[in-house]
Design a protein that fits this description.
Length: 258
C-alpha cells in the first residue's frame, strides 16, 4: 500500500494492499477501497463509501459527501456504492444516499469528466460518459452506454434510457427514452443516436427496428396508448420491447419529439 505522508486515513477504513493514496487526500471512517484503486491528490472520500476495484479518483474529487438536501440528518445517511473501473476526473462531486435504503449507486466502467455532480440516491448504470460540469439531481436513474454532454442539467426523478445521447447545455425535465438523441431547453428528442448505436456494434436490422418503433410512437398520429397497443401486436425485437417497457414504466412522462 502506498499512502502519501500528508494523507489522512481513518483507522476504520479498509484499503486493499495495492491501493495508492496521494498527497492531502482524506479517507473517512468505514470507507472500503478495493484492489488497484488510485486515489490522487486532495481527494475526500466520505464515510461509508465503498469502491470496487481499479477505480481512479483524480485531484479534488469528493465521493459520498453529504446530500445537498435541507432535510438531511446524519442518522438518515445511506452509503455511496461504486463498482469497478470507474474514472472520476478533477472536481467530481457525488452525494451519498439519504432517502432510499440502497443509497447512491454507480455501476462499472463509467467516465466522469471534471466538475460533474450527482445528487443523492442516484442510480447510475455502466459504460456511461458524463461531460464536464453536467449536473444530475437526486433520484435520477440511468441505464447503460449513455452519453451526457457538458453543462447538461437533469431534473430529479428522471430516468435516462440505454444508449441515449444528450446534447450540451440541454435541460432535461422528463424521461429520455433509449437509443435517442435529445437537445434543447427543455430537451426534445431530435432523432436516433445513430453514431452511438453504430459504435456499439448494433446490427443494421436492430437499428431499423428502433427507427420503425419510434416512427409509430412519434409520427403515426396515434396517441401513446394507441401506439403502444399497435407495437405490442407486431413482432417485437429486444430493442423494441425495451422501448415499449420504458414508455409503460415512465412516471414523469417521456420527452416529446421536436
Amino acid at each position: 500500500m502506498s499512502i502519501h505522508p500528508t494523507a489522512i486515513v481513518h483507522d476504520s477504513a479498509r484499503l486493499h494492499a495495492s491501493v495508492e493514496v496521494g498527497p492531502y487526500s482524506i479517507i473517512d471512517a468505514n470507507v472500503v477501497i478495493g484492489e488497484g484503486c488510485r486515489i490522487e491528490s486532495s481527494v475526500r472520500i466520505f464515510q461509508d463509501t465503498r469502491l470496487g476495484r481499479d477505480n481512479r479518483v483524480c485531484h479534488g474529487a469528493l465521493l459520498g459527501c453529504e446530500p445537498q438536501d435541507l432535510g438531511f440528518a446524519p442518522e438518515k445517511s445511506r452509503p455511496l456504492l461504486i463498482g469497478d473501473h470507474n474514472h472520476f476526473r478533477e472536481g467530481v462531486n457525488i452525494s451519498r444516499g439519504v432517502k432510499t435504503e440502497g443509497g447512491s449507486q454507480i455501476g462499472d466502467h463509467n467516465y466522469f469528466m471534471c466538475g460533474f455532480h450527482a445528487g443523492h440516491d442516484c442510480r447510475l448504470g455502466s459504460h456511461n460518459i458524463f461531460g464536464p460540469n453536467s449536473a444530475i439531481a437526486g433520484h435520477v436513474e440511468l441505464g447503460e452506454r449513455i452519453f451526457i454532454s457538458g453543462l447538461v442539467a437533469i431534473h430529479q426523478f428522471c430516468f435516462i434510457g440505454d444508449y441515449a445521447m444528450i446534447a450540451g447545455c440541454a435541460k432535461v425535465v422528463k424521461d429520455i427514452p433509449p437509443y435517442v438523441t435529445c437537445d434543447g431547453n427543455p430537451a426534445r428528442v431530435i432523432g436516433l443516436n445513430t453514431v452511438g448505436l453504430r459504435r456499439a456494434g448494433m446490427p443494421s436490422a436492430s437499428r431499423a427496428a428502433i427507427k420503425q418503433t419510434y416512427k409509430i410512437l412519434y409520427h403515426s398520429g396515434l396517441n401513446t396508448s394507441q401506439a403502444l397497443a399497435q407495437l405490442k401486436q407486431e413482432n417485437s425485437t429486444p430493442e423494441s420491447a425495451n422501448i415499449i417497457r420504458f414508455f409503460e414504466q415512465s412516471d414523469r412522462g417521456v420527452t416529446a419529439h421536436r
